[in-house]
Amino acid sequence: MNRQSFSTMWRTLVTAGSLLLLSACATGPTVRSDQAPDANLANYQTFGFMTELATDRGGYTSLVTQHLKAAVTAEMTARGYRFSEESPQLLVNFNSNVEQRTDIRTTTSAALAPYSYYHYRRGFYSPFPYYQKEVETVRYKIGTVNIDVVDAARKQLVWEGVAEGVLKRQDLEEPRQAMAQVVANIFDKFPQPRR
Questions:
Q1: How many Cα atoms sit within 13 Å of 133 on the Cβ side?
Q2: What mean pLDDT value characterizes the chain?
Q3: Per residue in 133-162, pLDDT tens?
Q4: Helices first, then strands: H and E counts in the chain
Q5: Mind listing the domains of the chain with CATH numbers?
């Protein structure tokens, strides 16, 4: 095997490994949640949304807000809460962010120097290899969604859920479905109200 074909094979293996690693990360977001120690979510029956949601900027309701509102409403009503625009007991706020990240990965591979002193052995028997470093740059997008549930009367956060994960191309092409799925993942951590 000559140096060029070995190097090409090695790059292919490294690239395939990187794609497998990214696809493994992209299977689902990392979700975490926290709850106020004195909060009993069974004490609440109604929910609404903050007047100014964190996903709205510029004085209008964004598509992100519309998608998140629909998904949160579905999850809250499925848990027995009723939507109310007038004096809701719980207020929901949310935020989302997408940022570009870059990883630089270095691998070491064995290779033959094409014109080294031992080049004359090439093709007949294997000399000892020398080692070279190959650097690969991987760029990807990380998405984060936060959902806050606030006691409206006390103006106190009673529960929060956060999801963070690598965004797939499909997530960017179909944001409504992607947001509905991530909100469902976050609400999997929502505590069952003690009634």
A1: 4
A2: 78
A3: 788 888 877 888 999 999 999 999 999 999
A4: 4, 6
A5: 3-187 (3.30.160.670)
